[in-house]
Amino acid sequence: MFNFFKSNNIQQKTDKIVNQARRFNTLLWADINNTDKNELKKIYKDYEAICRKFPRYRKGDGVFYIDVHKYRLILTYSWLKEISVKSKELDCFDMDGGDTVASQLLKRRFKNIKWLRMRGELRKKWPLKDKSVDLIVSTEVLEHISDFPKGFNDKFEGSGLRFVLKESNRILKPGGTFFISTPNANSALVIAKTALAIEPDNYRPHIREYTSKELIDVLRLAGFKVEKFKTYHCCSWGDKKDYTPVFEFLLNAHFPVEDRGDTIFIVAKKVSSV
After folding, report:
1. Taking the alpha carbons of 20, 21, 22, 26 in that order, is the dihedral positive or negative?
2. What three-state secondary structure class fits 81?
3. Are 73 and 105 in contact (CB under 8 A)?
């Protein structure tokens, strides 16, 4: 009799953890249905038209849709819309350089934003005046920034990232906004890939992927205050991969389950000069 109640109690605890794990996983699939249906149709139409201009996004005679980018761009649009509605006109520096699907789509969607772009090395002083822009947009850029080369036996220390954040602070007006999206090094996806004994990066060519805590800390040191951040499942949105087993493991081991989406979205404000 005692063993029956013991096993029944264990099963109830297991069921509770599984249900919690499913809920945490589902919460990270952000609801794009909050975006107006007509707006979504226009975004999809613009996205298709822009993709046709980029050979790497084509497959045969049709457009090769990459769901990770489509979903991420819809979220980017939603976050930037929330920022831009507060102003009639904004001067914005786009770190992406302009020659990407993301840059082209944002340019089409936000007519009240004056997009400032530069080509070349972000680790050299930017050709922009101090306190000259209202907004900086960095979509999937920070993970590509390497350190300044030192020579033999280099190690990653974040010097390139710190320089980019320093320049961002310099060109932003007081109270200016910094929008960032970048892969999450602490995601359920990374944990799953590690458990499968494959490379634990969201995308191997990246120089360095960061956790949300790392970014919040380095932004604070660079004179920014994070006002909003959230992580989402973007990289596997198309096939809706189920990370419930990952969350079961985290819950059973009493590890944190928050902020496990594969992409980090951040809005930070410039609060001091550095």
Report:
1. positive
2. helix
3. yes
- 62 forms beta bridges with 59
Look at the domain 2-270 and name its fold: Rossmann fold (3.40.50)
Strands 172-183 and 263-270: antiparallel
**What amino acid is encoded at 273 in this protein?**
S
Round to whole Å and give the CA distance between 75 and 80: 9
Q: What's the first-to-final CA gap in the chain, in angstroms?
A: 69
pLDDT by residue for the chain (274 residues), tens only, comes to: 334 333 444 455 678 899 999 998 888 886 666 677 888 888 888 888 888 777 666 655 555 556 667 788 888 999 999 999 878 899 999 998 877 888 999 999 999 999 999 888 999 999 999 999 999 999 999 999 999 887 666 788 899 999 999 999 999 999 999 999 999 999 999 999 899 898 888 888 899 999 999 999 999 999 999 999 999 988 766 556 789 999 999 999 999 999 999 999 999 999 999 8
Question: Can you tell me the distance from the alpha carbon of 223 to that of 204, in angstroms, rounded to the nearest whole number?
Answer: 30
Q: How far apart are CA 101 and CA 109, in angstroms?
A: 12
**178/136 Cα distance (integer angstroms):** 5
Q: Give the domain ranges of the chain.
A: 2-270
CA 215/CA 178 separation, integer angstroms = 12
Residue 78 — left, alpha, or beta (φ > 0 → left; ψ -120 to 50 → alpha)? alpha
Q: Which of 162, 149, 146, 153 is nearest to 206 (CA)?
A: 146
CB 73 within 8 A of CB 101: yes
